[in-house]
Amino acid sequence: MRGTTDDVVRAALASGDPLPGTAGFAGELDGTLGRDVLGREPLFVEAGATGRAVPPWSHDRTDLAEPALFPAGTVRDSDGERTVWTLPDPEPFEDRATAVERVRDAVETSIDAVETEGLAVAFSGGVDSALLAARLDAPLYVAGFPGSHDVEAARSAADLLDRELRVVELTHDAIERAVPEIAAATGRTDAMSVQIALPLYLTAERVAADGFDRLTLGQGADELFGGYAKVEKAPEDPRVEADTVRGAQREVIATLPDQLPRDVLALRGTGVEPVTPLLHDRVVSVALRLSDGMLVDGETRKWALRRAALDSLPETIAMRDKKAAQYGSLAARELDRLARQAGYKRRMDDHVGQYVESLLD
């Protein structure tokens, strides 16, 4: 079992507790194969295997001939495959002050518990990564093309925190080299997956070259705390089905079991282990108790997290808006540019995806 102790998983199986105090787990225990409710630890099974209670499996998809992602919150044993853990739906906090205090305590406790030996911080200057930077004594790294939003935001935030920043300058040559490596590690070739993974992968490569083997990320904060425009605009936004902000929050949290393996496997492909304290069970438990107005207040997304962050960060960083990494680093724009230069024009269906496939060939 990877991610926690056998005893914790046994207790979670016996009680059905979906958030037993871990940062995720997956693997085999006592003849039972299982993966935590948010899928924070990847787990793959051999798709073609039949007639066995526990099929061939691995945390690394490249170990299997036909890897299939094992569903989050699910176990498989001699009784078959079934869901045993689902996210709770607790009542929201009654007042904002309590919510902010509980968020602050959960976030700070989770970050402060991170061991800093061999650790680096993926730092983009937004509230999520800045919380990590402010509370962990580890070097800060940002990836982006020259003049990109992420590089400039990270530089200004690092100055405010009085921290040194190491910039991983992205280039077209690096992108062309990294795309096949990302596809091999993650098994994904769609344009969006590759765009998201590129800055993470190239940051992790530099981190490994500098002698670090762990990289802490602010992953999960947008999903848990209402960081997306489609959550803010629920129910008007057609990208979500929910008719409330809180309902939209749960919709995007439900996407994590499919998203997280991409990021974990991309980093592990460089020899670097991801560390995601904002995805710890104690943070998830608190985030699920936030009401609509605690998630989004007017035009302020991640309201409760930002208010909680004011104890650790200057207000200019805590309240700063930030672009998604693939856009803030300009990785998405420049991958699109390379595709067009290679003859894959925007009028073509999925022109970037076709370009990615051409690099694999």
UniProtKB/TrEMBL annotation:
<protein>
    <submittedName>
        <fullName>Asparagine synthase-related protein</fullName>
    </submittedName>
</protein>
<keyword id="KW-0547">Nucleotide-binding</keyword>
<feature type="domain" description="Asparagine synthetase">
    <location>
        <begin position="247"/>
        <end position="342"/>
    </location>
</feature>
<dbReference type="Pfam" id="PF00733">
    <property type="entry name" value="Asn_synthase"/>
</dbReference>
<dbReference type="InterPro" id="IPR014729">
    <property type="entry name" value="Rossmann-like_a/b/a_fold"/>
</dbReference>
<dbReference type="InterPro" id="IPR001962">
    <property type="entry name" value="Asn_synthase"/>
</dbReference>
<keyword id="KW-0067">ATP-binding</keyword>
<feature type="domain" description="Asparagine synthetase">
    <location>
        <begin position="104"/>
        <end position="236"/>
    </location>
</feature>
<dbReference type="InterPro" id="IPR050795">
    <property type="entry name" value="Asn_Synthetase"/>
</dbReference>
